[in-house]
Amino acid sequence: KQAEKAVHQKKEQSKTKCRKARRRHINLVAEFNRRQRKNIWLETHIWHAKRFHMVKKWGYSLGDSPTEKSYRACYRAMTKHCLLQDLSYYCCLELTGKENELLKQLARICSTDTGLTFEEACCLSGRFEGSLNLYQADRYPEDMLGPVTFIWKPRDGSENRQLWIWMHPALKQDILRELKAIFQCSEPEEIYIPEAVATSIQEKKQMDVVLSLGKKRKKEDKEGEEAVPVKKIIGDGTRDPLQSCSWISQTSGIVISDRTMEILRYRLIGPLSHSVLTETLKAASLQTV
């Protein structure tokens, strides 16, 4: 009986893949997708994970503190060169519609007593970014929602405008709820499923290849079903990937879209910031049809 038991245990043990097999690109993608199901990774996650202590906050995996003493290097970069910070975990809400209707309703959640508003000429033209504090509709100076930054898309001759509002992920749900209320936006009939979540037939074939390599034990989720890794989920950690991320008003035609993790955001600090941008970004040539 002891011999039979030992043979049975050997069969149950799975052989671990060699490092070369684990480091294959297709295996790395599947493993990375599995590890960021609960906490979303930023585009710079791999770079930060090698140099920072990572923490899980607001549905993201973020770099908290460096693993080595790099404070002097950061200070030197800020004062003499250029320091880049990844702020892509900030949430972005996009408002699209007629300019007059947008300004009319947005005036209800801010006040000129606190400084600039969405109607400021320098910000309305799209040349500068503005910042202000938002409040619940018609409740100023009470019931403050939190600080936000915004930028208008420059005019293109049409009466429709686009406005991007950036906020901390801890404030997103409250601000989104208030915007949907003042514009009377309701969810569209069809549920929007991002392309990044939908698994195509080719992806399933790739996953079959991944599972077949090394004959590793099948991964199972909590329900005991076979778990197939998917692409990186777009959105913040508080939103279901199958939940609608676009809302429209039947009366005014205003559309509110959640662009979190679709529009990345970086901050450059230092005297050489403009030089870095000039050398990095190249203007595209105009093509006339």
Automatic annotation (TrEMBL):
Domain of life: Eukaryota
GO CC term (a single one): ribonuclease MRP complex
GO term, biological process aspect, one: tRNA 5'-leader removal
Domain Pop1 N-terminal: 4-97
One Pfam family recorded for the sequence: POP1_N
Protein name (Swiss-Prot/TrEMBL): POP1 protein
Organism of provenance: Aramus guarauna
